[in-house]
C-alpha cells in the first residue's frame, strides 16, 4: 500500500467511525430492536417479556414452548400464547405468560414439572408496518418450596464444527456465564472449562476416523439443579486421501424474503432454510457448505448484523448440532457506511471490529488456514477464507465480497473492493493450496465463493462479469478460472443469483480453458428468486437452470461425482454425473 493510500485509508476509517450516530439515535434505518427483549421470571412462575423497538407497533403475540428432548430434530414446539400490549407510542410492548401452563400435564413434553424447570423457547410476532418475528430462549428452575427462578440458558447451539478424521469442536453460547461440561461417548470422557464461560469452543481431540460419537452438554442451573441438551450423534471424517465415499450439500442465499414474517426472521428466510437443511440431513449429507448471504445484513449497524447472524445460528441449530456447517461470506453479510444520504451504490466497508469479516469470525467456527491479511488496517481472512480435506476430496472457501465497497462515484478511488473482486494474496493462496492438495493425493477438488464467475440470471450487472464492460474484472476472472483449470478442479460452487444453474466452462467458452470445470450456481436457500438471462455470451454452455428454492447434494464415489438438485419438499429437479 502506498503512503498516500494508507493515509487516505486511515482518514476514511476515522471518518466512518466518527460518523456513527449517538446512542439515542436509530443506528440504521432497518434496525428494529432498541435492545434485546427482557424476560423476567417471577417467584410465582409468571413471565414478563418487554420488547422495546424503534418502530411504532400495534401489538402482536408471544408464544412459549420447548425444544422437545425426544424429537429426532429438536426444533421449537410452541404451546402457550399471550398478547403483546403496546405503550410508549407503540415502541414498548409487554406480555405476561405463565410457566405453569407449560408444566400442565397435557403440554409438558419435556417433563419440566418433574425436572424442576428447564429451557424455554420464546417466539414474538410483532405487528407494525409489517409482521416481525423474533426467536429467543431462556431457562428457569423451580425450588422445592414451589418458587420459580431464572436460570442460565443455552442461547445458541450447540454447534458441531471443524470435524476432521481425528477431532471436532463443539461451540455455542449461554445467555450468562455458566459452569458446564460436555460428555463424549463412547468412553464417557468429560470436557469442561475450568471457570464459568458464556461463549465456548470445546475441542474434541483423539478421535478415530469414520467413527460414530455422541455428546451432550450439561450445565448448572443453580440451587444444585442441572439442565442438559439431548444426546447428539455425529461421525468423524474419513482420513485424508482415504478411498471412501463422500456426500455433502451446498446451499446459499438464505437472506430474508419479501414475504416477511417467518420468511424474514431477523434477516433470515427461516422456513426455506430449515426445510433444505432437513432435506440435506435426510439425504445423508456428512457436512454442509454455505458460501454466503446467510442474512439480509448489508447494514450500517454492527449490532444489527450481530443479531441477524445469531438468528441464523438459531435457525440452523437442530441440524448444526449434528452435521458440521462451513460458512462463507456474501455481499449481504457485510457492514457498510453510506457515503451520502440515500446514495445507492455509494458506500464503504466498515473497518476494525465493526467490519463484516470481524463479526463473521466472532459468530462462526471455521478453519483458520487462510491467507494473511494484506496489510494493517485491512480486514481479516480468518474463518472466511479457508480449506479442508474430507476423505479423497479437498474443499476451498473463498471470499469475493471481501472488504466490500460500492460501485458509485463517491466510492471510486477509496479503499475497498467492488463486488466479485479478489486481492492478489487470496488468489496466490488459492494457487498454493490447490497445489498442496494435489501433492497430498487429494483426488477431487472443489472451490466455493459467493459471486459466480459466469452469472446466468439476476446478477450479470456485477459478480465477476459486470456486463462485460470492465476489463479489470474480466482479467481477474480469467486468472481465477485459469487456476481452477490448471489444478483440474472438478466443480466450483457459487450463489448470489437466487436460482440453480449448471454450466460447463471449457474451451468452447474460452480456448484457454483446456480442462473443463463445472460452474454450479446454487443460490436457492430462500432469498427472492431470479429468472434466467439468455443474453450472456456463454448461454449455450448452460446445461440446466431452475429458478426456485433448492439445494445441491454431491456424492463422490471413486472417480464418479454425482450431483442431485433437491427442493424443500424433497422433489429431485435433476440428478446428473459431473463428467464432462
CATH topology of the largest domain: Purple Acid Phosphatase, chain A, domain 2
pLDDT averaged over residues = 94
Low-confidence region ranges: 1-23
For the biggest β-sheet, the strand order reads 1-2-5-4-3-6-7-8
Give a verbal description of the structure:
This protein is of the alpha+beta class. 17% of the residues lie in helices and 34% in strands. It contains eight helices and 31 strands. It is globular and about 80 Å long. The two termini are 42 Å apart. Residues 1-23 have low confidence and may be disordered.
Briefly say what this structure is:
With 580 residues, this protein is an alpha+beta fold. It has helices spanning 3-18, 99-103, 112-115, 270-282, 302-320, 356-363, 424-440, 471-486, and strands at residues 38-41, 46-52, 59-66, 77-87, 92-98, 117-127, 131-142, 148-151, 154-161, 168-178, 180-185, 189-191, 197-204, 212-222, 225-228, 232-235, 246-250, 287-291, 325-328, 336-338, 347-349, 386-390, 393-397, 444-448, 491-494, 500-505, 517-522, 542-546, 551-557, 560-566, 572-577. It folds into three domains: 38-151, Immunoglobulin-like; 156-235, Immunoglobulin-like (Sandwich), CATH 2.60.40; 246-577, Purple Acid Phosphatase, chain A, domain 2.
Strands, helices and their partners?
Elements: H1 3-18, E1 38-41, E2 46-52, E3 59-66, E4 77-87, E5 92-98, H2 99-103, H3 112-115, E6 117-127, E7 131-142, E8 148-151, E9 154-161, E10 168-178, E11 180-185, E12 189-191, E13 197-204, E14 212-222, E15 225-228, E16 232-235, E17 246-250, H4 270-282, E18 287-291, H5 302-320, E19 325-328, E20 336-338, E21 347-349, H6 356-363, E22 386-390, E23 393-397, H7 424-440, E24 444-448, H8 471-486, E25 491-494, E26 500-505, E27 517-522, E28 542-546, E29 551-557, E30 560-566, E31 572-577
Parallel strand pairs: 17-18, 18-19, 23-24, 24-25, 25-27
Antiparallel strand pairs: 1-2, 2-5, 3-4, 3-6, 4-5, 6-7, 7-8, 9-10, 10-13, 11-12, 11-14, 14-15, 14-16, 17-29, 20-21, 22-23, 26-27, 26-28, 29-30, 30-31
Helix pairs in contact: 4-5, 5-6
Amino acid at each position: 500500500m502506498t503512503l498516500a493510500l494508507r493515509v487516505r485509508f486511515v482518514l476514511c476509517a476515522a471518518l466512518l467511525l466518527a460518523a456513527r450516530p449517538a446512542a439515542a439515535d436509530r443506528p440504521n434505518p432497518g434496525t428494529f430492536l432498541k435492545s434485546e427483549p427482557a424476560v423476567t421470571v417471577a417467584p410465582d412462575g409468571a413471565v414478563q417479556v418487554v420488547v422495546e423497538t424503534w418502530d411504532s407497533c400495534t401489538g402482536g403475540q408471544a408464544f412459549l414452548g420447548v425444544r422437545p428432548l425426544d424429537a429426532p430434530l429438536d426444533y421449537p414446539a410452541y404451546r402457550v400464547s399471550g398478547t403483546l400490549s403496546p405503550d410508549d407510542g407503540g415502541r414498548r410492548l409487554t406480555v405476561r405468560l405463565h410457566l405453569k401452563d407449560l408444566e400442565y400435564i397435557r403440554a409438558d413434553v419435556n417433563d419440566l414439572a418433574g425436572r424442576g424447570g428447564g429451557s424455554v423457547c420464546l417466539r414474538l410476532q410483532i405487528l407494525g408496518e409489517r409482521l416481525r418475528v423474533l426467536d429467543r430462549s431462556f431457562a428457569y428452575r423451580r425450588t422445592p418450596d414451589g418458587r420459580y427462578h431464572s436460570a442460565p440458558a443455552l442461547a445458541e447451539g450447540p454447534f458441531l464444527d471443524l470435524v476432521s478424521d481425528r477431532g471436532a469442536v463443539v461451540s455455542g453460547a449461554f445467555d450468562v456465564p455458566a459452569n458446564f461440561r460436555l460428555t463424549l461417548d463412547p468412553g464417557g470422557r468429560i470436557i469442561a472449562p475450568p471457570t464459568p464461560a458464556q461463549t465456548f469452543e470445546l475441542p474434541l481431540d483423539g478421535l478415530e476416523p469414520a467413527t460414530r460419537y455422541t455428546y451432550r452438554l450439561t450445565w448448572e442451573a443453580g440451587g444444585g439443579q442441572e439442565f442438559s441438551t439431548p444426546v447428539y450423534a455425529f461421525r468423524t471424517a474419513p482420513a485424508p486421501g482415504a478411498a471412501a465415499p463422500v456426500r455433502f450439500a451446498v446451499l446459499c442465499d438464505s437472506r430474508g424474503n419479501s414475504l416477511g414474517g417467518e420468511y424474514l426472521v431477523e434477516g433470515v428466510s427461516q422456513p426455506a432454510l430449515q426445510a433444505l437443511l432437513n432435506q440435506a440431513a435426510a439425504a445423508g449429507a456428512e457436512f454442509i457448505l454455505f458460501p454466503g448471504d446467510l442474512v439480509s445484513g448489508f447494514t450500517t449497524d454492527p449490532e444489527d448484523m450481530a443479531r441477524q447472524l445469531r438468528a441464523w445460528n438459531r435457525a440452523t441449530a437442530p441440524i448444526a448440532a449434528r452435521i458440521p456447517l462451513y460458512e462463507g461470506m456474501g455481499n449481504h453479510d457485510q457492514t457498510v457506511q453510506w457515503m451520502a444520504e440515500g446514495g445507492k451504490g455509494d458506500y464503504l466497508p466498515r473497518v476494525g471490529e465493526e467490519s463484516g469479516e470481524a463479526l463473521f469470525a466472532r459468530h462462526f467456527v471455521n478453519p483458520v488456514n487462510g491467507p494473511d491479511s494484506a496489510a494493517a488496517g485491512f480486514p481479516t481472512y480468518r474463518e472466511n477464507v479457508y480449506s479442508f480435506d474430507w476423505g479423497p476430496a479437498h474443499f476451498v472457501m473463498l471470499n469475493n465480497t471481501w472488504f466490500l465497497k460500492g460501485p458509485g462515484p463517491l466510492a471510486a478511488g477509496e479503499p475497498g473492493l467492488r463486488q466479485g473482486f479478489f486481492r492478489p494474496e487470496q488468489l496466490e493462496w488459492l494457487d498454493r493450496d490447490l497445489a498442496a492438495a494435489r501433492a497430498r493425493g487429494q483426488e477431487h477438488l472443489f472451490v466455493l465463493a459467493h459471486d459466480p464467475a459466469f452469472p446466468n440470471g439476476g446478477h450479470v450487472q456485477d459478480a465477476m462479469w459486470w456486463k462485460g464492460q470492465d476489463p479489470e474484472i474480466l482479467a481477474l476472472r480469467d486468472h481465477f478460472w485459469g487456476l481452477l483449470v490448471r489444478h483440474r478442479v472438478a466443480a466450483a460452487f457459487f450463489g448470489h443469483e437466487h436460482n440453480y444453474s449448471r454450466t460447463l466452462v471449457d474451451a468452447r467458452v474460452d480456448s484457454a480453458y483446456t480442462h473443463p470445470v463445472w460452474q454450479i450456481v446454487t443460490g436457492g436457500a430462500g432469498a427472492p428468486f431470479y429468472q434466467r438471462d439468455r443474453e450472456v455470451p456463454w448461454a449455450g454452455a448452460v446445461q440446466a437452470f431452475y429458478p426456485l428454492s433448492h439445494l445441491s447434494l454431491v456424492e463422490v464415489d471413486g472417480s464418479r461425482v454425482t450431483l442431485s438438485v433437491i427442493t424443500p419438499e424433497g422433489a429431485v429437479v435433476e440428478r446428473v454425473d459431473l463428467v464432462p
